[in-house]
Design brief:
4-stranded antiparallel beta sheet, 6-stranded antiparallel barrel, 6 helices, Elongation Factor Tu (Ef-tu), domain 3
């Protein structure tokens, strides 16, 4: 009996030691022991508070109403107001080249001279032929349009002979009635009168033929004079419409863009040769294509701002001069022509230019800093700050503005349209952790942001 008691005690001791060893060495969790239910646990409110997320720190600024210009942007090439290729009107040898590339010439200035020796001899020949025809009429100079052959001496003499024959016939008629003269004498007087009349007519015809020859010689001489004058190649007159900025100017000038001939070279009219290319560059024209959707907005007279690479910091202003009334069906665009003043000739014909056409303005457009814009999965939005909560608002972007800051550094603002009004606080930093309805807190602004904007938050 005593042995069984000792066996039970040893078994109980062995089991108890194993349990204690298991707990000590972590083989048995303490929570499974009956004593674990008596251990105190953490208070429930403290656990719930630990699970709540902390407010996300952000910086905010106010949406600002600004005056925004509505512009249509396009690109194009600057062309001279007029570009002219000069060709010779007569064949000949180039005696002297007067102007070269880059020279500014006015209408009428001589560009090139062709040897005129043969042309001068031709003029002299036709002048002598004209003098010969005038001598046949008894004249020293070309008569005007009121001149008639009846005033010529030959015609006047024939008319006197005709009147004398008529008087003799009249006297012979009375003598014949009284039988003083024979019938043959009377018929001779009639024949003399008829001959005198025909002679007068012939004199008039000859005078008219000689006068016509004089007119012909005059025309031939004028042609010879014209060909002689064509040996001097001059800049042509500008008869096109006056561009804006040139009103009241006496003349417009050309600039020699290219020269294709040298002294001593023979030039010909057939096939035509190019001697010079002249460009009117005191005013340039920009031709550009504008998308069809802006057809109702682009009008003549609208202001156009241009930019070229050669003058990166210069403000260039032009005006829409013409709008093509048709749309190109291939690319769905229409062409506009812009007049660009170039009095200083800083712009060059052929340059590439970007242009923005002012089609309107909005005095109260809502703008926000560019850094407040969030783009994700094709959606553009901003986060507004209302009652310590961030709210996502979908927006559409418009014009971008460069606004100088208090430190002199320009800051970019963007026009937005949507459920945003002037004065609305928008989040400018901290977007990466934000979601719609997230709790936020305003931290002190840094960098280029204004601390005053952060203080506006409630």
């Amino acid at each position: 009996m005593l042995a069984r008691v000792w066996q039970a005690l040893l078994l109980l001791l062995f089991v108890g030691g194993g349990v204690v060893a298991g707990v000590v060495f972590g083989l048995i969790p303490a929570g499974v022991l009956p004593l674990a239910k008596h251990q105190p646990s953490a208070p429930a409110p403290v656990v719930e508070a630990a699970r709540q997320p902390l407010p996300i720190p952000v910086t905010v600024t106010s949406a600002v109403p600004r005056s925004v210009e509505r512009r249509v942007r396009t690109v194009g090439t600057l062309n001279g107001f007029e570009e002219i290729d000069i060709s010779p009107l007569v064949d000949g040898n180039v005696r002297r080249v007067v102007c070269d590339v880059g020279d500014v010439v006015a209408p009428g200035d001589v560009l090139l001279e062709i040897d005129d020796t043969d042309f001068q001899l031709t003029v002299r020949e036709h002048a002598r032929a004209l003098e010969l025809e005038l001598s046949r009429l008894g004249l020293e100079k070309i008569p005007d349009a009121s001149f008639t052959p009846a005033s010529l001496p030959s015609v006047q003499r024939a008319r006197l002979v005709e009147r004398n024959a008529a008087a003799i016939l009249e006297r012979n008629k009375g003598l014949a009635d009284r039988s003083v003269i024979t019938r043959d004498d009377y018929e001779k007087a009639e024949l003399n009168l008829e001959t005198a009349r025909l002679d007068t007519q012939q004199r008039v015809i000859d005078a008219e033929q000689t006068l016509a020859a004089v007119r012909h010689r005059e025309a031939v001489l004028e042609i010879a004079d014209k060909r002689l004058s064509d040996t001097k190649i001059c800049a042509p007159a500008i008869t096109v419409r006056t561009p804006p900025g040139a009103e009241g100017a006496a003349t417009m000038t050309y600039t020699v863009a290219e020269r294709f001939v040298s002294e001593g070279e023979i030039v010909r009219t057939a096939p035509p040769m190019k001697l010079f290319r002249l460009v009117v560059d005191s005013v340039l024209k920009l031709r550009a294509a504008v998308p069809e959707r802006y057809e109702a907005q682009v009008k003549r007279g609208q202001e156009v701002s241009l930019a070229v690479e050669s003058l990166p910091r210069r403000r260039i202003i032009g005006r829409v001069s013409r709008v093509n009334p048709t749309v190109d069906t291939a690319n769905r665009t229409f062409e506009v022509e812009v007049w660009v003043p170039n009095d200083e000739r800083l712009l060059k014909a052929g340059s590439f230019a970007t242009a923005s056409i002012l089609v309107g303005a909005d005095a109260d457009a809502v703008t926000v800093p560019e850094e407040s814009i969030v783009r994700y999965a094709g959606v553009t939005k901003i986060f507004t700050f209302v009652d310590a909560t961030a709210h996502a608002v979908a927006v559409e972007l418009g014009t971008r503005l460069e606004i100088p800051g208090e430190d002199g550094v320009a800051r970019r603002w963007v026009e937005v349209s949507g459920a945003v009004s002037p004065g609305t606080l928008v989040v400018t930093t901290g977007h990466s952790q934000l979601s719609d309805g997230a709790a936020v807190r305003v931290r002190e602004a840094s960098g280029g942001e204004s601390a005053a904007a952060a203080e506006e938050a409630p």
